[in-house]
Queue: 4 jobs
Job 1
Amino acid sequence: MRSRSPTLSRKKALGKILRAAKAVGVEEIPLSRAGGRVLRKALKTDRPLPPFHRSVMDGYAVRAADLASGPRELSVVAEIPAGTVWDGTVRPGCCVAIMTGAPVPRGADAVVPVEDATGLGSGRVRLHPENIRKGAFVHPRGSDGRTGKTACAPGFVLGPEETAAAASIGATRLKVTRRVRAAILTTGREIVPPGRSPEPWEIRDANGPALRTFLNSLPWVKGRFLGIAPDRPEALRRRIRRGLAETDLLVVTGGVSVGRYDFVPAVLTSLGVRRIFHRIRMRPGKPLWFGRRPRGPLVFGVPGNPVSAFVAAQEFLLPALGRLAGLADPGPRALFLPLAADWEKSHPFEEARITRLASLSGRTVLRPVPYRGSGDFLAAVGSDGLALFPADRKHFGAGEIVEFHPWPAV
Ligand code: AMP
Ligand code: MG
């Protein structure tokens, strides 16, 4: 049964993963430490935005009607720097010098920028805007949002924009997802830490460091590296048991295929992790194993080839972690872009192909990276993401639009 070609598509596999993943708990933290975390409670405005009719320019607050028939001299009766308020009313024939960010006073209904003004001394100014209409250069009170508007919905990562929204409504403590705990275990008798000098038949661990960098690029995740385990059931059992404790998601790389030393699936099930699927109709990454321990962590067994590990991280670990973190859109982000040149695929699987973005006659195009197999991971250096070629076709023409998943920014 194992030797038959797997039929589970990437999309169906992803559906199973997202259904198995539930958002983890919430904590309340100060705004100053909330950057990069996932918001879990909507932020609502506590007053209109902007809170007053705000001048958008340095210039003169005027009555637009005064300038209806062209340039004119007016008396300057006051000055309003930002952070102050002038309690008077602008009368016909008068104006008020005003700065960007200051409240437009009563009576005035437009601002003439300082560039369209010529000072005449002794409290007089000549205003000569090209044309003037009511409301020019005035940002009206409440026009961006009334009190109680949702400034940021739950499920967003608090980047600079969302932090600005939180700060401007005075949200100094925020309900965010506690950091999602992820653990990585690398396996393989041939795998040695990068700092050790390898025997000719040994391989330096690329996956442990690669997955740590991947996890570190997600500020809402707390990663833990459990080291390298040999291909022996008892040793694997000990390490995996440790990995299952105090973890929301465990990734084991290597040993999930059908080789004689691929013990990971059997060890996982012997520790009470229920298999949800094993093997998918995609390359690289075909031997992917996914399961969950009841009331425990999600567990991924990822094939050991580093390219398979990158693909699994992008296509499956990222959305699983995103769902655990309560992200509204757990990703990966999909763009649809044209191929730079014809492209052939040799197998009836979906292909997730390491790809670079290039510029061709002013358009962004996809250049799949040539490599000789999923073991050729140096070919991935400097790449931008994965292009996804559907299972049911083999030939793709230049200019054809293909789905592309950019790597998350590191
Ligand atoms: P496996 O999935 O264990 O059958 O491994 C597939 C291939 O990937 C083998 O050639 C391994 O030597 C290689 N490999 C496995 N784990 C790693 C790793 N952590 N770093 C680099 N190569 C690996
Ligand atoms: Mg192995």
Job 2
Amino acid sequence: VGLKNVYGVPGLPGIGGAADVLDGRVAAAAIKSRVAARVADLLAGGSPAPLLATILVGNDPASETYVAAKHRACEEVGLESASHVFPADVPSGEVEACIDSLNRDAAVSGILLQLPLPDHLDARGLIELIDPRKDVDGLTAINAGRLAHGSAALVPCTPKGIVALLDHYDVELRGRRAVVVGRSDLVGKPVATLLTQRDATVTLCHSRTRAFQEECRRAEVLVVAAGRPGLVDERHVGWGAVVVDVGIHRGADGLVGDVDAGAVSRRAKAISPVPGGVGPMTIASLLENTMLAAA
Ligand code: NAD
């Protein structure tokens, strides 16, 4: 709201007030209604609704919550979904057999293996068993390679959602200094790739980065995915920066992110909240990827 005009002026100093909110619920609702319209078209044409199959191992409460939210979101937009749940001590062979049968099942459009997995399972090995055409998390080597080449159809959901959130609020990326904190395969690396493809000048910071505060403070767009609550505060943020907080942590007072939002919002032009920022965008991107996988 007004972000385009204000942020379109490079180096505009903040005014010491509250930052604008990059509301992921609003942006996700727009994506969901587009997906719902496409599902309705498919059904009207006599085709079945695309189906997302999830695989959940163990009973990590956060993972259970995420998987339940993914099924609810499918239902909201008219996608089918099916869950495959295994106990924490499941032998690897059973999960492998499940992936194999979902790969072969023509009714299944997308397969999502919820991470993290218990230690006795080889997450990388299991991910590679997923048919890349059904890999709606975009984590197989084939899809990661295609992303690096700029030809990916199935892009990891959180990075895709982050860029969609910035686009929804018309945040200019071309030529901007973007700093990404975190270099995981799930978030940091792919979001740095996507921002580079959108012509941002990208710096990737991680746990070994020297002068971390200074690197962050140079950012016009700062994406923080470090998995450390409150790691980034006002000392890391330049006036007028746009800040995307990817972290999710369950604190005593509810969910918090990697960014000290109260302190940062006095300097930043805009910031994504936790909850209600990147989380809903991740789910909306998963729905989009399930549609794409079915096409
Ligand atoms: P990860 O632990 O795999 O990676 C964290 C990265 O941060 C590492 O590359 C590490 O080098 C870097 N890092 C750690 N400490 C640092 C420090 N002090 N300074 C600079 N860099 C540091 O985590 P991940 O899977 O990328 O997830 C990051 C966060 O995002 C977590 O809180 C996770 O829960 C959250 N997350 C949210 C969503 C969502 O949908 N909102 C999705 C995925 C992950």
Job 3
Amino acid sequence: MRKKIIAGNWKLNKNRAEAAALAKSIVAMYRPEAGVEVVLCPVFTALESVRQAIDKSVVRLGAQDCYWEEQGAFTGEVSCSLLKDAGCDYVIIGHSERRQFFGENDLAINKKVQAALKQNITPIVCVGETLQEREADRVEEVVGTQLRVGLQSLSAEQLEKVVIAYEPVWAIGTGKTATPEQAQAVHAFIRKILTELSVPAAAEKIRIQYGGSVNPGNVKALMSQPDIDGALVGGASLKAESFIDLLHFQESARV
Ligand code: PGA
């Protein structure tokens, strides 16, 4: 049984005080018996404030990116050992905004995944197609390549520790969500590729999040699909009430 994992990707939002206040509200309102693994991913400068706000709670800390080298002349970069030192257990890697605006490719993503695993940080590896690619019926080709290259040379043991986030680019921040059936079809395909890359027993353990306009109204139907093991949430993670509704999805759509 895979434990559901819901992560808030705060993107480039919230200063230290705002981030700490949001994290404190989430800790106060979240009922751990909901049994969801909760991860908050603020901007780098707010990591320490959020770390303090979630201290001694079940909520975990994640970063939104990392660099693969540990130290040296790499101006502006942050390594995985520094993220570990900052209290991170997770790091988002290869988000479509990084691919789109910062030119990240699957080979760079692969190096980042390996660097994160080396520091015992769980990488949340993002994959997903654009609208144009979906319309051209290229979803499996695109997502398949992202997985095969992004996860290359990992052992089955390493792969088990990875979290995948399927985020169709056309659904991110647009209010358009993939239907539960559309998402499930791609999640099942992803698990098939993961089986090829590792072994069936390992692929069964890997959690695959859905991301793209997840909100309190659609979360339950998405989470009820057999291969959807959580969510990576942007917009709806920026307010405590809506994020808590997502974390408590099993109880009702609105709590
Ligand atoms: P969204 O973002 O929930 O605002 O669509 C999701 C993401 O980019 O991770």
Job 4
Amino acid sequence: MRAQWDLPGADIDVGTLYCIGRNYAAHAAEMGSAVPDEPLVFIKPPTSYRPSGSTIHLPAWTSNVHHEVEVVVVIGDDLDAISANDALSAVAGVGIGLDLTARDVQAEAKKRGEPWSRSKGWKGAAPVSGLVPGAECLVPGADPLTFDLLVNGDVRQQGSTALMERSIASLICFVADVFGLRRGDAIFTGTPEGVAALHSGDHVEARLHDLATLTVNIA
Ligand code: MG
């Protein structure tokens, strides 16, 4: 059965989750990488989604799952192309999510030159908060969105959309142009610096300013 996004008054199935790599310079630097010349896109399946309040079980085949807190935009229309000026109007809802990453498995796959889908797409690897309507917080000229991540009450990551290398609008254009977007698809817009390991028993809270909160427990 398809999960649905938590957006009051809407009825939107969770679709493909497009994730943007290295969209904040300080995170690219901490990974020993540069900001890519073109958007770096990978995909998580809908089955990796979990709503706020979930318990996420760390897979047995990894010993190093990292948190990456990211602003998530959920698309409300079917788009095969859209202009940058119109892109934000296609956003049904905005939330805060975690791009959970089995860093050890990803690093090994990169070393071998193999796909790293498993490290990013496992069951539970994409928890996302309830959504706020895009029209309320994501319009041209609106203030940047700030967000943070707490693990057991300690702040681990802080970010602002003002620090993105590529804007949310430009990312929507790129993904629509290359892949096509469908209602219910989402874009994880990249993580700021401060990624680190999670452990069984951790309580994780991600906050999108005062708009949305995601809480998950790690088991
Ligand atoms: Mg990420």
